[in-house]
Fold:
Amino acid sequence: MPRKPRLPFHDLGPPIVFLTSLEFRTEEPSDTLTIFASQRKHSKDTSYHDEVYSIEVPKLQGAFTGTGDLTAALILGHLHQHPDNLKLVMEKVINTMQAVIQRTSEATNACKDPKSAKARELQLIQSKSIIENPPATYEARKIE
Structure:
């Protein structure tokens, strides 16, 4: 299990930080990505603590257009719905992203020109039901 990282980003102001697509290299190439989410929670006495979660997911092959935009939109939308449940927000965001990228990868592989810009665009319309009701495939773990 990963150690609780010290995220200096909170010291710059943002109370919530997502670090996506981190690859921890060992001697052999990794086939997983790690995502961290952290929320700084302040107490009434001016103290604070950082609540940190991580999720490991399989690395999906390919380069796709729009993943950062979709991730940011999902984070904002789910934080608005669940402002005090970072674990749930993270799970919804990451599960949605993995499912949308998987669907896009399958469509790209079936395309006549899989290297074209059009083939690399996320299948957002086709993934509407996934975006509205993400699967519960990956679970966030709290890092102490």
Q: What stands out?
A: The longest strand covers residues 32-42.
